[in-house]
Amino acid sequence: MKMYVVQHIHEVTKDCEDLKMIGVYSTQHMASSAVARMSRKPGFSSAAEGFHIDEFEVDRDYWEDGYDEW
Fold first, then answer.
1. Which residues pair with 24 in a beta bridge?
2. Model pTM?
3. Which of 8, 30, 55, 59 is the most exposed place for a label (fewest CB within 10 A)?
4. Cα–Cα distance between 48 and 68 in angstroms, integer?
């Protein structure tokens, strides 16, 4: 089973991004419809290039390694 994650990333400054989680959808079509709806909203309408749709398979690890502690 797949899911589609819609996010919007807006660069606030050179070193700072604002990420908004829009939603998680069961089909590509529903994810695209969410982008169409949100792209008419204030803020989003002037930054439509910031939308991203990512496809994920459920019940799967996407990060398989550990990480170094600082």
1. 5
2. 0.84
3. 59
4. 35
Contact between 20 and 50 (Cβ < 8 Å): no
Give the pLDDT of residue 9: 96
Side-by-side strand order, sheet with 2-13: 16-25, 2-13, 51-57
Give the confidence band of 14 by pLDDT, cuts at 50, 70, 90. confident
Closest to 20 in 3D by CA, of 46, 37, 40, 43: 43
Compute how many other C-beta atoms are within 10 angstroms of the C-beta atom of residue 8: 21
Residue type present at position 16: C
Q: Which H/E stretch holds residue 50?
A: none
Check if the beta carbon of residue 12 is closer than 8 Å to that of residue 43: no
> Which contiguous run of DSSP H or E holds residue 11?
strand 2-13
